[in-house]
Design goal:
- The structure holds 3 protein chains of 3 kinds.
- Chain A has helices at about 15-20, 45-50, 70-80, and strands at about 5, 25, 30-35, 60.
- By secondary structure, chain A is an alpha+beta fold.
- Chain A has a single domain (about 5-80), classed as Alpha-Beta Plaits (2-Layer Sandwich).
- In chain A, strand 2 and strand 3 form a beta hairpin.
- Chain B folds into 3 domains: about 5-120 and about 250-330, 3-Layer(bba) Sandwich (FAD/NAD(P)-binding domain), CATH 3.50.50; about 125-250, FAD/NAD(P)-binding domain, CATH 3.50.50.60; about 350-460, FAD/NAD-linked reductase, C-terminal dimerisation domain (Enolase-like, domain 1, 2-Layer Sandwich).
- In chain B, the strands form 8 sheets. A 6-stranded mixed β-sheet of chain B has the order 3-2-1-7-21-20, with helices on one face. A 6-stranded antiparallel β-sheet of chain B has the order 24-25-28-27-26-29, with helices on both faces. Chain B has a 5-stranded parallel β-sheet with strand order 9-16-10-11-12, covered by helices on one side.
- In chain B, a hairpin with a 5-residue loop joins strand 13 and strand 14.
- Chain C has one domain: Cytochrome p450, CATH 1.10.630.10.
- Chain C has a 5-stranded mixed β-sheet with strand order 1-2-8-5-3. Chain C has a 3-stranded antiparallel β-sheet with strand order 4-11-10. A two-stranded antiparallel sheet of chain C has the order 6-7.
- In chain C, helix 14 crosses helix 16 and helix 15 (about 265-275) packs across helix 18 (about 360-375).
- Chain C is globular.
- The chains are: A alpha+beta, B alpha/beta, C alpha+beta.
- The interface of A and B includes residues 28 and 35 of A.
């Protein structure tokens, strides 16, 4: 799964680093570092981190699943705009 | 533009995007999201699918990410023909054709140029070819540099802009001895001025970097095997090193447009607020759009100056706007009104900025303290707030962004939490070569939500 | 005045079960100032959000006291104010030290590694329903779960719950505007006393940890020796009191509001049962739709602030109506609809800015697990009483009891 964080939006709330600590880490008080390629076993944690981000700064693909934000329903919703 | 042409374009037109990095990818996604069903061709000089660059000088060097795996997630299928590893070499505006390095030509109905920038090489070509001398812009650069750093002991970095400072920080975390040389009086002065530059300098020296300012590198010296072994400085000194990282900013990738008739040059490609490129006569084109680092576009909030922004967020926002404008009617076009913003992290300190700091001539530390390296600084120009910078204080920046959008008065005349004595008066922001925009009418954004923001034009008072 | 003022109707216990029509009315006057010494009540999303990031807004208890709030002073007498009631730089320093015992960068796995334990506690509580086919979700689940968790996390003996409960209740009551309005000297004194007692009790535990450190937050707080030094004993006490109370009071309501909402939306409950991963999005939507903290009533402004043509004078008290902002149609499409599929759920449920909820990641994880396990294990669950009886508190709003009937346990 590929991911990117819009670090202009990021305000260091660290929710992702709490919920998916093997993908996201705080480096200092408010600097986020992350792995742009997450392992398959991180799927659920990554999805939780994406959902919990208070500034909705995380974009990930390959999360497709019934509850993944990049799921088919979300795609259709985007198409309908 | 005739409506039926647009309908046809959206349905079966040919759009070509030159530049397959962040801006190119986001533009392609936006085109598809907004209903473009014609053919889409993505041309990129690197043989890789679009990848993210900011991690290359941070997470990658810190060992938190692989240089080979920073590919950008896709927001949606783009269904494009990818021509990767083949640079564009020419443009024929009349025939509407892009020439490629392999001799191919690709025809378009509308073109988006997002060719970005490349690292400025060391000015002496032969020295630049020495083994151990690196640039850092691409994933290949990062992979090579990382590999060499693993066996190095000493690193010499030329140029203390953001990238140079980030590399210095990562190298110190790897335990390497680092020398950082900068022509100006302190790191980051071009971007943030001397007041903040002094804090950046303390950050470097406090973390064990041998910082040399007010100095230039005159020569790189190699050993008989062609491996770099030392750096000669303008004060006559010589520093031995295993690795040299040349971090002297960037060059805009516009050479391929030479002679095309577009208004393209070393400063980028000029375009209007709707991302349409100008030709060299200053007349806007109909079918050529520009986005990302290579674009220069007028910003209403900053005196309509043409801003070239090498910012990640600008590439995304401008790509979205350009793509939208490429396939919509004139009245539905949007201006590219993105608030400039960037981030950097050095020695675990998060540095963020909004607005255009170099436009400011004064700065006020409205919250926190420079000495503690936790603060917000506000830049003013001609009585208005034009930018803000924070060190480990990012959660306040939203407020200052609003102040910039509203053209709020400067100096800041209200109380704020955590105001220290040092922050009561503005001081000279100390930019080396302040760019002074002409005094003129002002434009501000108003409204309570981003959704209903309106541009307000206030004519100059005489 | 023919009718009670709008903000008094909002704080009126009679309207606790459904304050949302009042919030809608409130948003028509987004900057409401009804009584001369009363607060400025802010109810639109963007205004709240901007004030949460506005450095002219103070959380300092001393400023609140100066603005005429006597209880603010009472709460901070004896023990120093917690970081919730402080501005930077003190707020930042204390919160950083507290965070070094709680999360990244110092303890990146502390919360995530509790997942298995949280599942076990939830499983145990549900098993404890036994043969009963009607339960009170609050007393049997939503309260004991977060209490057990915060006790483990801090290192407070679970069996001491009745003891600290007696101190927590009067303290939490001081947050309720209606209760405050009627507070006499006696009430103020007892709240003050309760805070001190609770602080002393926790200080005793910290003392033990100093001698015999365990893998818990009190041990780390006692041992905090970062570059900024340690907290003083008084600061440790204030912080521990805050963490103990905030660590469960709000989560009880989030879980209870969550189950109530799911039972009112059986389609979503059904989907959660099929797909526990949906819990992450359900919890975010809940934080928008039924946030456990409805109002932030403890801010003051330290400079004049212009907002929608109204000048809020320096020194005024400000109430931020998070729950009203969360249903602002200027911000959210179909705001009155509970819809975990919405693409855009940037809610104010945990606040925003420097005071955003410290325990948010724990509350998220607890509620995700609680709701997905309840959905999985209760066969045909249904509400016995709708609306349920509510607690008095208008700020920390939630049902006092939630009777649920079901056919069987899975």
């Amino acid at each position: 799964m590929r991911l990117v964080v819009d670090l202009n939006k990021c305000q260091g709330y660290a929710q992702c680093a709490f919920l998916a600590p093997d993908v996201f880490a705080m480096h200092g008080e408010e600097t986020l570092v992350y792995s742009p390629r997450a392992q398959e076993e991180q799927r659920e944690r990554l999805a939780r981190a994406v959902a919990a981000c208070p500034v909705q700064a995380i974009t990930a693909d390959g999360l497709d699943g019934p509850s993944g934000p990049a799921g088919e329903a979300a795609r259709e919703a985007a198409d309908g705009r | 533009m005739a409506a039926d042409y647009l309908d046809w374009l959206r349905r079966e037109g040919r759009i070509v995007i030159v530049g397959a990095s962040l801006a190119g990818l986001r533009a392609a996604e936006t085109l598809r999201a907004e209903g473009f069903t014609g053919s889409l061709t993505m041309i990129g000089d690197e043989p890789y699918e679009p990848y993210d660059r900011p991690p290359l000088s941070k997470a990658v060097l810190l060992g938190k990410a692989s240089p080979l795996h920073t590919e950008l997630p896709h927001r949606r299928e783009v269904d494009a023909k990818w021509r990767l590893g083949v640079p564009a070499t020419g443009l024929d505006l009349t025939a509407k054709r892009v020439r490629l390095a392999d001799g191919d030509e690709v025809e378009y109905d509308r073109l988006l140029i997002a060719t970005g920038v490349r690292a400025r090489p060391w000015f002496k070509e032969e020295e630049g070819r020495l083994d151990g001398v690196f640039l850092l812009r691409t994933r290949d650069d990062a992979a090579r540099l990382l590999q060499r750093l693993r066996s190095a002991r000493r690193v010499f970095i030329i140029g203390a802009g953001f990238a140079g400072c980030e590399v210095a920080s990562a190298c110190r975390e790897m335990g390497l001895a680092v020398t950082l040389a900068e022509r100006a009086g302190a790191p980051l002065v071009g971007a943030l001025g001397g007041v903040i530059g002094a804090v950046a300098a303390d950050l470097q020296t406090g973390n064990g970097v041998d910082l040399r300012t007010g100095i230039t590198v005159t020569a790189l010296e190699g050993d008989p095997a062609g491996r770099v072994r030392s750096v000669h400085l303008s004060d006559g000194s010589e520093v031995e090193t295993d690795v040299v990282v040349v971090s002297l900013g960037s060059l805009r990738n516009t050479e391929w447009l030479t002679g095309s008739g577009l208004g393209a040059g070393p400063r980028g490609i000029a375009c209007d607020a709707g991302c349409r490129a100008f030709d060299f006569r200053g007349i806007v084109t109909d079918d050529v759009f520009v986005a990302g680092d290579v674009a220069r576009s007028p910003h209403a909030l900053f005196g309509y100056q043409f801003l070239s922004l090498e910012h990640w967020g600008n590439a995304v926002a401008q790509a979205e706007t350009a793509a939208h404008n490429m396939i919509c009617r004139g009245a539905d076009r949007r201006p590219h009104l993105w608030m400039p913003a960037f981030w950097s992290s050095q020695f675990k300190v998060n540095i963020k900025s909004v607005g255009v700091p170099p436009m400011g001539d004064q700065i006020m530390i409205t919250q926190g303290s420079l000495a503690e390296r936790r603060f917000v600084g506000v830049y003013g120009h001609q009585g208005r707030v034009v930018a803000a910078v924070s060190f480990d204080n990012t959660r306040w920046l939203e407020f200052y962004q609003r102040q910039i959008e509203r053209g709020a008065p400067f100096p800041v005349d209200y109380t704020t939490v955590d105001r220290r004595p040092e922050g009561r008066q503005p001081v000279d922001a100390d930019f080396p070569d302040p760019s002074l925009p002409t005094h003129g009418p002002t434009v501000t954004l108003s409204g309570y939500s981003p959704a209903d923001q309106q541009l307000v034009f206030t004519p100059a008072r005489h | 005045m023919t009718q009670a003022s709008l903000f008094r109707r909002i704080t009126d216990f009679a309207n606790r079960a459904d304050p949302y029509p009042l919030y809608e009315e409130l948003r028509r006057t987004p900057v409401l100032h009804e009584e001369e010494d009363g607060p400025y009540v802010i109810s639109s999303y963007w205004d709240i959000r901007s004030l949460l990031h506005d450095p002219r807004i103070s959380s300092d208890a001393a400023n609140l006291a100066a603005a005429g709030d006597e209880l603010a002073e009472a709460q901070s007498t004896g023990l120093p104010p917690s970081f919730l009631r402080l501005d930077p730089p003190e707020h930042d320093r204390l919160r950083r030290i507290a965070n070094s015992a709680f999360g990244p960068p110092h303890k990146p796995h502390r919360i995530e590694s509790m997942r298995g334990e949280l599942h076990a506690i939830v499983g145990g509580l549900i098993d404890g329903f036994g043969e009963a086919r009607e339960i009170d979700l609050v007393d049997q689940f939503a309260y004991p779960f977060p209490v057990t968790v915060i006790c483990r996390l801090l290192g407070v003996p679970r069996e001491d719950e009745p003891r600290f409960r007696a101190w927590v209740d009067p303290l939490v009551a001081t947050l309720d505007p209606e209760t405050r309005a009627e507070a006499d000297e006696e009430f103020v004194k007892s709240a003050q006393e309760a805070r001190m007692q609770l602080g002393m009790y926790l200080a005793g535990l910290v003392e033990q940890r100093t001698k015999d450190p365990q893998d818990d937050m009190l041990s780390d707080l006692a041992d905090s020796r970062g570059p900024e030094g340690a907290m003083t004993m008084m600061e440790v006490m204030s912080t521990a009191v805050l963490l103990l109370i905030a660590g469960h009071e709000t989560t009880v309501n989030l879980i209870t509001n969550g189950m109530l909402t799911l039972l009112r939306h059986p389609d979503v409950l059904h989907r959660l049962r099929e797909d526990p991963g949906l819990s992450a999005r359900i919890v975010e939507e809940l934080l928008r739709y039924e946030p456990p903290v409805q109002i932030v009533p403890q801010r003051t402004c330290i400079a004049d602030i212009e907002m929608r043509g109204v000048t809020i004078p320096k020194g005024s008290r400000i109430w931020l109506m998070l729950a009203a902002g969360n249903r602002d149609p200027e911000r959210f499409k179909d705001p009155e609809k509970f819809d975990p599929d919405r693409e855009d759920i940037q809610h104010l449920g945990f606040g925003s800015g420097i005071h955003s909820c410290f325990g948010a990641p724990l509350a998220r994880l607890e509620t995700q697990i609680a709701l997905s396990e309840l959905a999985r294990r209760l066969e045909n669950p249904r509400l016995v009483e709708d609306p349920p009886p509510y607690r008095q508190n208008a700020v920390l709003r939630g049902p006092r009891h939630l009777s649920i009937a079901f056919d069987a346990l899975r």
